[in-house]
Amino acid sequence: MPDLSALLQPRTIAVIGASTQPDKVGGMPVRLLSELGYAGHIIPVHATAREVQGLPAVPSLDALDAPVDLAIVALPVSASLDAMRQLACNGTRAAVVFTSGFAETGGDGIAMQAELAALAQAHGITLLGPNCLGAMNPRERVFATFSPIPLTGLPPVGDVGLVSQSGAFGAYAFALAREASLGLSHWVTTGNEAGLHVADVIEWLARDDATRVILAYLEGCRDGDRLRRALAAARAAGKPVVVTKVGTTEAGARSAQSHTASLAGEDAVYQAVFDEYGVFRANTLDDFFRLGYVLSRGRRPTRWQPSAKEPANAVTPVALVTVSGGVGIMMADQAESLDLPMPPMPEDAAAALCSAIPFASTANPIDVTGQVVAQPAVLLDAIAATAQCPDYGSVVAFLAGGVGAPRIWPGLQETVDTLHRSGTAAPLLFSGLVDDDKRRWLEARGALVFREPAQAVQAVAVLARAAAQAASAQPEPAPATAALPVPDVPPEATSLSEFEAMQWLAACGIPSAPHGLARDADEAVRIAESIGYPVAIKLCSPDILHKSDVGGVVLNVISAQAARAAFAQVQAAAADHGTPARFDGALVARMVRGWGELMVGVRRDPVFGLVALAGIGGTAVEIFRQTAFGLAPLTHARARTMLRASRAQALLSGHRGHPAIDADAVAEVLVRVSQAAATLGPRLDTLEINPLIVTAQGVIAADAVVTLHATDKPSH
Amino acid sequence: MPDLSALLQPRTIAVIGASTQPDKVGGMPVRLLSELGYAGHIIPVHATAREVQGLPAVPSLDALDAPVDLAIVALPVSASLDAMRQLACNGTRAAVVFTSGFAETGGDGIAMQAELAALAQAHGITLLGPNCLGAMNPRERVFATFSPIPLTGLPPVGDVGLVSQSGAFGAYAFALAREASLGLSHWVTTGNEAGLHVADVIEWLARDDATRVILAYLEGCRDGDRLRRALAAARAAGKPVVVTKVGTTEAGARSAQSHTASLAGEDAVYQAVFDEYGVFRANTLDDFFRLGYVLSRGRRPTRWQPSAKEPANAVTPVALVTVSGGVGIMMADQAESLDLPMPPMPEDAAAALCSAIPFASTANPIDVTGQVVAQPAVLLDAIAATAQCPDYGSVVAFLAGGVGAPRIWPGLQETVDTLHRSGTAAPLLFSGLVDDDKRRWLEARGALVFREPAQAVQAVAVLARAAAQAASAQPEPAPATAALPVPDVPPEATSLSEFEAMQWLAACGIPSAPHGLARDADEAVRIAESIGYPVAIKLCSPDILHKSDVGGVVLNVISAQAARAAFAQVQAAAADHGTPARFDGALVARMVRGWGELMVGVRRDPVFGLVALAGIGGTAVEIFRQTAFGLAPLTHARARTMLRASRAQALLSGHRGHPAIDADAVAEVLVRVSQAAATLGPRLDTLEINPLIVTAQGVIAADAVVTLHATDKPSH
Description:
Two copies of one chain form a homodimer.
Chain A: H1 5-8, E1 12-16, H2 28-35, E2 41-45, E3 51-52, E4 55-56, E5 70-73, H3 77-89, E6 94-97, H4 108-122, E7 126-128, E8 135-137, E9 142-144, E10 157-164, H5 167-179, E11 184-189, H6 198-207, E12 213-218, H7 224-236, E13 241-245, H8 250-260, H9 267-276, E14 280-281, H10 285-297, E15 305-306, E16 314-315, E17 318-322, H11 325-337, H12 347-356, E18 366-367, H13 376-388, E19 394-398, H14 409-422, E20 428-431, H15 436-444, E21 448-450, H16 453-471, E22 495-496, H17 498-507, E23 515-518, H18 521-531, E24 535-540, E25 553-557, H19 560-575, E26 585-590, E27 596-605, E28 609-616, H20 619-624, E29 628-631, H21 636-645, H22 663-679, E30 684-695, E31 698-701, E32 705-708
Helix pairs in contact in A: 3-4, 6-7, 11-16, 12-13, 13-14, 18-19, 21-22
Family (chains A, B): In the N-terminal section; belongs to the acetate CoA ligase alpha subunit family.
InterPro entries (chains A, B): ATP-grasp, ATP_grasp_subdomain_1, CoA-bd, NAD(P)-bd_dom_sf, Succ_CoA_lig_flav_dom, Succinyl-CoA_synth-like
Organism (chains A, B): Cupriavidus lacunae
């Protein structure tokens, strides 16, 4: 568990390479710390100057009596490495290295960065950087950064911890947080991540009392386990994590690689990781900050329950109050698309509204109409009635330009104050044109304010999800790997034959088509007759991977005569193969009839290890690309989610008049497949069952491909 | 073609029901017109007062010498109808009726509204409303509204025409336009649309010289032809139309119906209409205004071409310049997802950048890094070099907080000014934190400014699409309906038999499975032997719609013996049917083998008439719901788009090793199907071919269902 206390709460800070010019990289931290009121001890280190920006300087670290908590290194590449060697010997607890020109430039930079990392690790120094913009703790006025941005103003001290791999993104985020009055607890940029990763900062923030919400910007991740541990810690602490992970497209991934030498990895796998730990993902800066605002400031709905359709979400009944029927419809569209129920207004409140405004709509959205200008009490009563009604978990009110209207604002203040003080009313979310003062007044009483009505409705869904996650902060434990048989594979093998794969999967308890291995035509007929026609007859040769391309597969074999012919054909296919190919016989497998095909697989991701995927098989998987991913081994809940997310569920629920089959049992097959893959440990490269046929008796594996790493070391 | 000149450019305005109290519904128009500088003649009509708000009043319209251009009616329901009767007789050219309580309340209101509409129509009065918030022409200071919102400030006069069915939405939109300094030409709210529809206003704005961009808010549309004519006029005039159509979900549609009695209709059909005319669709208020801002203010890219993948779009090469590598990646992700090419920087500019900042990235995104603070010239040179480089059509620059920095701003002004004056440079789009004054300065020189970098990239795609649409302002003409045979159907028939349908479609030139109608088993065998086994044998009975449910379908019949058995089975199915069922024989059709199934259909939409749909057939169509819609009869280009949008194209382009087949020929089949449906005129209810089997010889219809309206009147 990384310790960032010396970095973010240091009592002494040395600035190595301190500059007498406050705007230089080495001058800015001295300027910020002294101008903005850091209360600890600042020690500029300067080869010649006796004084730096009015502070006494030392010529080198050797001149100090005691080790410092934090050293800021603002030196050129090779000098920064020298400085690190010195820090290693004198007990420094943490170091921030601004210097660029390390791994991101390739060549020597990579080796120098490795040495930097090794020194820090060997001597227990918490290392931030190199090639980073540093860190800040606004509460304790720690500004270990060369960004001038704090000079133009600070955001309020608050509970949002912000960590960014990119410095410039971090600086812009700081400016936006300031503009939006989003309160920050800590601000950290990790750059090349020779020491601290974004993951380490998340993990520390998860345990930091000052932080309730974590915003993280990632370009890539080199250590999947570290990220998973960090996200698990945040989840266990009930702290929502918002992540922007860029490089989602090929072009983006290319730029990410050249930017901070990040391995972008496959976006769907990142998404599976984020899903696993309930991360809120943002693809734009607007979303990043809005999620931060909503999660940090927003009260959780008073009523919610986990969503039956999408376990990552939660549903909560919402009252939509509007002065515009049109915007009411927009909000209803949004609520419906987010599965938020909109129960109608309770009868007494509805009657009161109707008697005041006959044309008002008391269905939900509750349209108090433009009449509200003349009768503001009707709007306020509708807000109060719905916020106090136990049928609703949140109230979203669209007030157009009316929030600040002199005829409405005083009454609105009274209503909001009363509801706030009651302690039991449902949270309020307003949208409309609201000036900053009034917005702050409303926010201080637990209300959220948006200009865009759709965003107010989205916020309700986000808060319900956060509530559900906090209530189940302990995620389902990873399933204990069942004691499954492990196939006996020679060290040099790079695959299992289909027969070996089918045998092994069947032994693992995965329902499979009845099958056998035939060495000659007679045996093929014997097997076919024992399992029943029709059968498929497929070539088994370790030298031929794509057996159907060479005529090595015959389907729908329905008689002994046809079986002999098919056996002869696949044997000939091996013999006629261009390069010499061994012939191990032919797999004879019962043709399974069903009404749909699923596929399930497991593969090794270079960052996150084994990842399971599932979806509809056959043509659809290629055309519609709705495969769902999950970290392997799968939990049962995750397998169920994958069936839903990939639409595979549709084939199980009475599709086209076929009987519904037990989705839990199908999910269990997915879990078992992911566990079987895990038993192969680092040897597993890929496992794929396609098709997994949907029949009235459940799903049945009809084909299996397993590829392996040749030694017991995976390729990365 | 509606004439809105008396409504929006009146020389005389009478306010019927004028109030001496300026904040009442009947007082506000008088107040607005006199306070805000209307130059024409204002005539308050008041039963008793001699003067209203300082203006001489008349007791009734009869007291006037000459007819007025515009009458504003601010009276209760029945009085407003009386007033309309009077207006009808005295030559009034236009009327705005604010009054609510007409059709939206049901009952008598419907009849009264019908009378209002009939009076206006009979006497050539342009009628706006009832139940509307009126209209404004800010340029001529016409404020025919009771909304007090203009009192608190007006948006600049500009070229955006705004029309909203909802009054409150319109008022909020007015306030947002004012806040965003979006210049308005006209502002119209249509309410219950007894006279003018949103469509009429669009059509008029399309011909209005003051308007270049049209923003429209719709809850529903009762007259599809009118909307199509309006959108076609705007398209022909090269004026982009942005539409927010609410009621996209079931809950939203329900609220829409109760709000302005709109028929929401099926959202996919609206989308097909919008696609047909190149409408820019916005689902949130933010998008609505941002599209207005981009289309009204943004310069079109200097280089673009129609997109090969998605004809509704256009592609344009973009230079992404950034001071943050991280944000550069976000922008690259966005550009890639919008198919915007990102060519690398030209060599000489790249070399100059690298010599100034060795760690800069000259690939695209062009990352000038945080060094720009020390070396602002590098940023400015990168912007100038890319804007002048003929490889790029637009330049998007992310400047974080730096736009206004004292070290950057003067140089940036010089660069932007020089590029602007050159007249040939690519348009500039900035993102970052920019204060209002600087934003306006940049906008005055043709640049756009965004806070969210992703939105700056999206704007480039929007502007390229607008450029492509303006260049082909004449949309492809609707195809001349081919002279196709029309089936001879008795007036009472509500369907064709499958045999009739197949015969007819084959006669229309749609490739169909060879087939015949067998009256007895011998004839079934004769037909099967003449067309070749395997065949399908299907019951023909006008009394049984779902023939497979009663055992009326036998597939894969491979011999004469099997054909006889199958015939007997389907005949028995008719005989065993619970209710007496006629037996017309059995359809014998060749089983067509292919590698995929498409579906194509035509159905009647109550608002827009015949609509064609197409997509992948079989299981996929139900599970993935990727059916594409288009207005029928289809153009060839639209049919091609539908194949792409529904992913059906994937089955035609060498799927899984099958040969690629001619997509143009498949599109031609879709066109022919839509034309065939049109020959049935109003009798057609639905036509569906499913499956349309994909074979190496092209697509072949294997099944057809045609349902009809019993008389020659469609049901609506």
